Structure formats: C-alpha cells, structure tokens
Structure to design on (109 residues):
C-alpha cells in the first residue's frame, strides 16, 4: 500500500540552442495529416495535440524540434524568432503523468 507506479515515454531531441522555457515568438505549424495512423491529429506530447489542417501556435522549442527532426516533412512552418512575446503560460513544466489522480490497480504486463 502507498506504492504507485508510473510509466512514461519520452521523445528526445538533441538540438543546439533549445531554450530552458517555452518562449512565445508567435510561431505556428500546420500538421498535414500525413503521419501513418494519425490522419486527424498528431500528439507530440501531453501539451501538443496538433489537429490536421489547422494553424497551431507553438513555442520556439517545439517549432525547432518539429522543423529539425524526422517530423519536418509532415508540417508547414510559419514565423521566426524576430519578435518575442514572452513565455507560454504553463507550457512543458509538468511531468508527463498526473500525480494528483488516483492510481489504478493492476498492471500492463
């Protein structure tokens, strides 16, 4: 009793110049819906469920991660880092699982 188990999958990007926080430069991406098995929406992580065919505001780090990775061909990119609008509120500061929810009994294996 009192023991909780969490499992998380991380997508790691080794890119130079990533910022420590989610900085807002007014950049947007449009997902083309071309990733296999994800024609309607691409879920990069807990904070980024990007619908196909719609402009989606992203921080500078997410913009760079998508543009400089294997995902680049599946997106259109708009904007640059010439104007800084501050930090996206609450972006990427939490762990990938909710710690305040009740743990489920059982396991996957």
């Amino acid at each position: 009793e009192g023991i909780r188990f969490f499992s998380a999958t991380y997508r790691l990007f080794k890119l130079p110049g990533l910022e420590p926080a989610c900085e807002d430069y007014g950049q947007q991406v449009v997902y083309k819906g071309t990733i296999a098995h994800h024609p309607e929406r691409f879920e990069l992580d807990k904070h980024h469920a990007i619908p196909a065919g719609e402009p989606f505001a992203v921080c500078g780090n997410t913009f760079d991660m998508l543009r400089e990775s294997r995902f680049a061909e599946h997106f259109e990119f708009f904007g640059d880092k010439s104007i800084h609008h501050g930090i996206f509120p609450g972006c990427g500061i939490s762990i990938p699982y909710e710690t305040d929810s009740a743990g489920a009994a059982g396991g996957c294996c």
Q: What stands out?
A: Residues 4 and 105 are 9 Å apart (CA to CA). Residues 28-78 form a domain with the Ribosomal Protein L9; domain 1 fold (CATH 3.40.5.100). The two ends are 19 Å apart (CA to CA).
